[in-house]
Specification:
CATH superfamily of the largest domain: Periplasmic binding protein-like II
CATH architecture of the largest domain: 3-Layer(aba) Sandwich
Mean pLDDT: 86
Number of helices: 10
Shape: rod-shaped
Helix content: 40-55%
Number of domains: 3
Radius of gyration: 29 Å
Low-confidence stretches: none
Number of strands: 11
Structural class: alpha/beta
């Protein structure tokens, strides 16, 4: 869809507001009609209809011209502010330089990944503004599907209708054990071979979804000792010797006090990527700023995310 003209959309959204504004500026119905590209009789009828509906006069005659009444003068600054607000809103819909992007993302991506991506993008397009929401996987996708966000940085990626996605980086899942665990030196393990209590993330977290899918694949039901809010907490609990966990491999190596063992027997990957509304969904329109940031993330994300996640 072509980006509509800002002035054209403002005319559609606020014809009556612009009548008041132009009449106040020109103090002449004919001149106001010319500025609005409207026949003078049409403008006169529209102005009369507006005053009838309001139940008060907004203009009065002054010889050959007109001027705002006291009521019109009281209303005028509010009209002008409304027109300015509408113009800014339309600019957000149509412009790349002053648009707004609503981004939802996983808490694990909020420490380094999102700031790095935003910093790089805003160095190129400083006028684009962002609304940021940090939340768990299920909530993030729900917000995106409901139209509360333009893009989601999340994992795993959805397969449902209406959403499109691109993988930016794929992490391997590992069995994370305390460093002195009897199985810590094994080359690979199946979750079913570990009899310890497990530390899992809470339901609704993306890693928990992947863990449940993996355990279903190997027909294993872990004994759960703790359910953590985030990956970092789960790692810390393992390091304290309070259980074992299934987590993405840590880019900088295992946390002190833990070891990470490759998993066998089932799907053990965590794709991290960007998700957006498929063409034709989400109202059928994607603001240029959103498309610009999505393209930037798809281009730059695979280079920066591997070193910053986990």
């Amino acid at each position: 869809m072509d980006s509509p003209d800002v002035e054209a959309l403002t005319r559609v959204l606020a014809p009556r507001l612009r009548i008041i504004s132009e009449v106040a500026r020109t103090e002449h119905v004919t001149h106001a009609a010319a500025a609005l590209d409207t026949p003078q009789p049409t403008l006169s009828r529209a102005l009369a209809r507006l005053q009838d509906e309001l139940g008060m006069a907004l203009v009065e005659r002054t010889g050959r011209g007109i001027r705002l009444t006291r009521a019109g003068r009281v209303l005028l600054p509010h009209v002008e502010r409304a027109l300015d607000d509408l113009s800014r809103g339309v600019a957000e819909l149509t412009g790349t330089e002053e648009g707004r992007v609503a981004l939802t993302f996983l808490p694990t991506l909020g420490v380094e990944v999102v700031p790095t991506l935003l910093g790089g993008f805003r160095s190129l397009y400083p006028g684009v503004r962002f609304t940021l929401t940090q939340e768990a996987w299920a909530e993030s996708l729900q917000r995106l599907s409901a139209g509360g966000a333009d893009l989601a940085l999340t994992s795993p990626l959805p397969t449902g209708r209406g959403l499109a996605s691109q993988v930016l980086h794929t992490q391997h899942l590992r069995l994370v054990l305390p460093e002195h665990h009897p199985l810590a030196r094994r080359g690979s393990l199946s979750p079913a071979s570990v009899v310890d209590e497990f530390i899992l993330l809470k339901p609704g977290r993306g890693v928990r979804h992947l863990t449940d899918r993996l355990n279903d694949q190997v027909d294993f039901t872990p004994k759960v000792a703790f359910e953590a809010d985030d990956i970092a907490t789960a790692r810390g609990l393992v390091a304290a010797g309070l259980g074992v966990s299934i987590l993405p491999a840590r880019p900088r190596g295992p946390l002190k006090g833990t070891v990470e063992v490759p998993i066998v027997g089932g799907p053990a990957e965590r794709p991290v990527g960007v998700v957006w509304h498929r063409e034709g969904s989400g109202g059928g329109y994607e603001p240029p700023a959103v498309a610009l940031f999505r393209d930037y993330v798809c281009r730059v994300g695979p280079r920066v995310i591997p070193d910053l996640t986990g």
